[in-house]
Design goal:
This protein has 20 helices and 50 strands. The protein has 1086 residues and is of the alpha+beta class. The strands form twelve sheets. Strands 21, 22, 23, 24, 25, 30, 33, 36 and 37 form a nine-stranded antiparallel β-sheet that branches. A nine-stranded antiparallel β-sheet has the order 26-27-28-29-40-35-34-31-32. It is globular and about 100 Å long. Bound molecules: zinc ion. The site of zinc ion has 4 residues, from loops.
Length: 1086
């Protein structure tokens, strides 16, 4: 922390230092003198229309240019945008004038800029933040997409962005407002997470144009979003729809990138336009105010990469404010002011009125009748998969770094770099696939570097752990390293290739299990010959199987591999948060070449086990599935839509592209009338290898112990020689009577009910039948009738729908030849190695009864499988040429668990990562929704100390979801719902009076709330300060009270046995879908 050199800043520095992060045992520090946040809001005029001008810039963390090109401002011919200049310029302007305000969103850019500043400049910026003149909004590493992102990654990137803000600016750096102005539709889970992170409100710009019209017409653009079906009020979030997306009013763009007229106020200038311009502005805001409930409107004054010359904006805004407000003398009731979204929100709160509510989500987003933004749910399928792999390894790296026996100075920089890279990947033009091709390459390259950086952590740590050192975080590593084992990651396992396993006669496979319960997994290792044995650490030789790698994989032109087979074995009892290693070696025992079944192809073929059996018809298609309880017709096929082609000049001439899914017609084309199949049956797995055509193949398999089936598809290169872009889907048709209803997940978490051709809050008119029924599938899509339920789990984000009863489809790959005219200016025509991109992935199919009264339910199996597919074991390979089996077995620790209790399968430790010095951030999560299973949906209690016996924990305290504020310090603004719920019944019926808006207390003074003297009562309507810290005793006392409260057991609780009556036990109670986040402080090593 830099010294505070300027005398007048001393006090502010003190605040920033003291409140920099949740303090454990320190006394609370009142922010007296610090004027950030709501306390810093400019006064509004209660009887006037207050126009909150919000200067802002929207800085994409990569889109048409790479992250660095945007930061440094290179490649100006592509886009004139340089973020470093923006922040320079804005800060200069803010320092000149205390009335000016600015909000900043993307921590990825801000901290790059921050690191380049002098200590003096940093102090000046801290002052701006402390005075609320520069306010952080959103604050995550990037403004993440909401359709294709997994909740784990969203939480991670908020955790890191807010952590950096907290470390640097303390309380005043903490954002209170979610600012998702550009993402293409909005998920309910995102709103729920914002609420759980302690945010007071959310503003966004993009929602379906019909929904927006309807909402603005009915004054329902601002609402209370009840964002969880499980969590109740803690997941309610005030949400506002911005009037003009995030642009300034037409004609009022004062950036150097714009061509609008400045305010010309030369007294005698023939061009003087003051009257005209103020009139125009008043007309706009007066109209706008008719769509909102209070005497406040928020005007976004900025756009993509604006404020490179902030003076150009501010100079004109100054004039606009001056000339507009001068009219008040003559009776004008319009008041303009520099403001921020949080000050606007405070005004709404202070208005003391009620608000409509919202229970569903804002997907899909349509910007016109033919532009459904549902293509990006699938665009760039391999980048979407790589991002998910990144998440998996980030969790592994975080865990192992926390478990490291010795600390190495490069661990944390590597981990931070990985966190930041994954933050960038969540950006709404990164994982979405809506960036230019070379930017997509840049993202992939960054992720690859980050994976390798953390790979050096895991190599070091695993070498220490295997040589028998126990985790004692904090001991510095002073050894010079000559690592015994490589613990290498094979990046190309997705095309069944791995240099070590296919070239070494002896190698070690170490499976790291990032789950908090022990698990088992069928492992596949690419090998070049038939004769291998697999031995574990107890001298037991495992049962193995060899199957050929499908020819379609072997024939991939760019695959440079000797592996022709996969060696398969069952790795069982894999310890939680730990690893188990296997020694694999060539033998001279001769194994026979695996040969496909000599099935009579004129009869039906079936594969499976006693839990699930799949039948294929004589044409080679899946035709039925049998479980213990039922046989249902289920077939599966690959089809494609032809992408629409148009010049984009009018709505109806819209092309299908990176953002937009727009098929030429709703008719899908079948890729084949009959796939060629081969059937392999072994003891561990049964497989059907299907070849549909020259560019689509698939392996359908059922492992002996699994209750579900895998469909491992490979698509590409998608042919375009006919000049037609194609959007490939896999479709499962069943006889389940779903009556138009299906279910899709929200960021991998809670499920949402969908009804074909329907929206919950308005009567939708669909001119794009297929595209308008597509929803984002982050992990799961399902449908059911009263007897049966069918679910498909995905390994990456995809678009999906149910276009007919009993039918589920997922779009797995797209190759298009035209741009859709939303800025990217390229067609989504991905190539690799000189041909169309090949993508390989897996769907997991679960079929079962739809009853919920008997455990285990089908939904329970889905939840367990979802988690196991998100975080399977990470496979580390080490050559063992120089280490005999006995040497390996006798001299190394080949099984290890970092925790002392295997948690039940419905409880997940979502995060386990190094935090501040001697601290670990840990998140526990209940992965079921209520009523999904009569047993596993119960509330669970356990003693945290039973889980972490190996750690010397001296303090535990719960935080908000993002890990950066103490939960018991956190206060959120409360908003009151409308007393009557109005239903939207007709999109065509426009005007409705807003009489139902009830003023709760008309006499309530609007502006006299006190902010930094005392805490206002929580139940009062007055805006309370979120900046206040409550006085409280030591944490142990809080914990004791908490434990007592928890002792009152509820009947629905499933308890884990407490190991002993321990005074220091720390009971954690988790109800369905709850996530609890804690900071653990560990004893210091001396
Ligand atoms: Zn954007």
């Amino acid at each position: 922390m830099a010294n505070c050199k300027i005398k007048s800043l001393l006090f502010i520095c003190f605040i920033a230092l003291s409140a920099a992060r949740p303090q454990k045992n320190s006394k609370s520090i009142l922010n007296v003198g610090s004027k950030c946040g709501y306390a810093s809001c400019p006064a509004v005029k209660p009887h006037m229309l207050n126009v909150h001008l919000v200067p802002h810039t929207h800085d994409d963390v990569g889109w048409l240019k790479t992250v660095d090109q945007y930061y440094y401002g290179s490649e100006t011919l592509i886009q004139k945008a340089g973020v470093q200049y923006i922040i320079d310029s804005v800060v200069e302007q803010l320092l000149k004038d205390p009335n000016k305000r600015f909000i900043y969103v993307e921590s990825a850019f801000f901290f790059k800029w921050w690191s380049e500043q002098t200590p003096e400049m940093q102090e000046e910026v801290k002052m701006l933040v402390d005075e609320g003149r520069l306010e952080f909004i959103g604050g995550a590493w990037s403004m993440n997409d909401e359709a294709t992102t997994h909740y784990q990654s969203i939480i991670d990137q908020f955790t890191w962005g807010l952590r950096r803000l907290n470390d640097t600016f303390g309380e005043c750096g903490r954002p209170r407002i979610g600012w998702q102005i550009d993402p293409f539709g909005h998920s309910r889970e995102m709103a729920s997470m914002f609420a759980q992170m302690g945010f007071d409100g959310l503003f966004f710009g993009r929602l379906d144009y019909q929904d927006k019209d309807e909402r603005l017409m009915n004054k329902k653009g601002e609402m209370i979003w009840r964002a969880s079906a499980n969590l109740g009020e803690p997941a309610h979030l005030f949400t506002g729809v911005l009037y003009n997306q995030y642009q300034p009013p037409p004609g009022f763009c004062f950036d150097i990138l714009c061509a609008d007229e400045p305010i010309i106020d030369g007294k005698h200038s023939p061009d003087n336009n003051v009257k005209k311009r103020v009139d125009q502005f008043f007309e706009f805001v007066t109209n706008m105010s008719k769509s909102y409930r209070t005497k406040n409107v928020l005007i976004t004054m900025g756009e993509d990469f604006h404020y490179q010359n902030a003076n150009s904006w501010y100079k004109n805004l100054d004039k606009l404010i001056k000339y507009a407000n001068e009219r008040q003398i003559n009776g004008s009731e319009i008041n303009l002011l520099y403001s921020t979204p949080s000050c606007y929100l405070k005004s709404l709160h202070d208005a003391g009125i009620t608000w409509p509510t919202k229970d569903d989500d804002f997907f899909p987003y349509a910007s016109d009748p033919h532009a459904y933004w549902t293509g990006y749910f699938t665009s760039r399928p391999t980048l979407k998969r790589y991002e998910r792999v990144g998440n998996q390894f980030l969790q592994v790296c975080k865990q192992l770094t926390s478990l490291a026996p010795r600390e190495n100075p490069y661990f944390l920089p590597h981990l931070s770099f990985f966190r930041e890279t994954m933050g960038i990947m969540q950006h709404h033009d990164a994982v979405t696939g809506t960036e230019k091709q070379k930017v997509a390459y840049d993202y992939a390259r960054r992720l690859n570097v980050a994976l390798r950086a953390c790979g050096s952590n895991t190599k070091d740590i695993l070498n220490h752990l295997t040589s028998g050192e126990t985790p004692q975080t904090g001991i510095p590593d002073t050894k010079k390293h000559d690592y015994k084992f490589e613990f290498k990651t094979c990046d190309l396992l997705n095309i069944s290739s791995c240099l070590i396993s296919e070239t070494s006669d002896r190698f070690i496979l170490t499976l790291y299990n990032p789950l908090a319960h022990s698990t088992f997994e069928y492992v596949r290792v690419p090998v070049s010959t038939l004769d291998y044995i697999v031995k574990d650490y107890r001298d037991v030789t495992l049962e193995t199987e060899i199957l050929p790698i499908p020819e379609t994989i072997q024939n991939i032109t760019f695959r440079n591999s000797r592996a022709k087979y996969e060696l398969i074995f069952l790795a069982s009892e894999l310890p939680p948060f730990g690893y188990k290693s296997y020694y694999i070696m060539k033998t001279n025992k001769h194994r026979l070449e695996p040969i496909p079944d000599a099935d009579n192809l004129s009869s039906f073929v079936s594969i499976g086990n006693e839990k699930i059996r799949l039948t294929f018809d004589t044409n080679g298609f899946l035709s039925a599935i049998t479980t213990k309880e039922m046989t249902r017709i289920v077939n599966q096929e690959f089809l494609y839509y032809e992408g629409a082609i148009g010049n984009n000049r009018e709505f109806r001439n819209r092309s299908s592209g990176a953002y937009i899914f727009r098929p030429k017609t709703d008719n899908v084309k079948l890729v084949t009338t009959g796939p060629k199949i081969k059937v392999y049956r072994g003891n561990l797995v049964e497989e059907v290898h299907q070849i549909f055509n020259e560019w689509i193949s698939q392996v359908v398999r059922v492992y002996r112990k699994h209750g579900y089936a895998e469909f491992e598809w490979m698509v590409g290169p998608i042919p375009i020689d006919d000049g037609v872009g194609k959007e490939i889907i896999t479709r499962f048709n069943s006889d389940i009577q779903s009556e138009g209803i299906f279910y899709t997940d929200s960021n991998g978490r809670e499920m949402l009910k969908r009804l074909r051709d329907h929206r919950d809050t308005w009567r939708v008119k669909l001119l794009e039948h297929t595209a308008g029924n597509y929803y984002p599938i982050t992990t799961k899509i399902a449908l059911e009738d009263e007897n049966a339920r069918l679910a498909i789990l995905t390994d990456r984000a995809q678009g999906g729908s149910s276009m007919g009863d009993g039918s589920l489809e997922l779009m797995i790959h797209r190759r298009l030849l035209h741009d859709d005219a939303f800025g990217v200016d390229e067609s989504l025509n991905e190539t690799a190695f000189g041909q169309g991109l090949v993508a390989r992935g897996t769907h997991y199919l679960i079929l079962g009864n739809s009853q919920l009264d008997q455990s285990p339910t089908t939904q329970l199996l889905e939840r367990f499988t979802q988690l196991e597919k998100l975080l399977p074991t990470w496979k580390f390979f080490s050559d063992a040429t120089n280490s005999s089996y006995d040497d390996w077995r006798l001299n190394y620790t080949n099984i290890f668990s970092g925790i002392s209790l295997s948690l039940p399968r419905n409880i997940h430790i979502m995060s386990f990562e190094p935090w501040h010095e001697n601290e670990i951030l840990i998140r526990f999560e209940h992965i079921l929704e209520k009523d999904e299973d009569p047993e596993y949906s119960k509330t669970v209690q356990f003693n945290l100390k039973d889980v972490l016996r190996g750690f010397n924990i001296v303090d535990i305290r719960e935080t908000t979801l993002d890990g950066n504020a103490w939960l018991d310090d956190n206060r959120r603004m409360e908003f009151v719902p409308d007393p009557i719920e109005e239903l939207y019944d007709n999109y065509a019926l426009y005007y409705k009076s807003s009489d139902y808006v009830q003023l709760l207390r008309a006499d309530k003074p609007l502006l006299d709330a006190k902010y930094f003297e005392e805490l206002l009562p929580v139940d009062g309507l007055g805006a309370e300060s979120n900046r206040l810290k409550r006085e409280h005793g030591k944490n142990m006392e809080l914990n004791r009270l908490r434990a007592e409260k928890l002792k009152k057991f509820k009947p629905s609780i499933a308890n884990l046995p407490l190991q002993e009556d321990d005074d220091t036990k720390f009971i954690i109670e988790l109800s369905p879908m709850e996530i609890h986040t804690y900071v653990l402080t560990l004893a210091k090593h001396i």
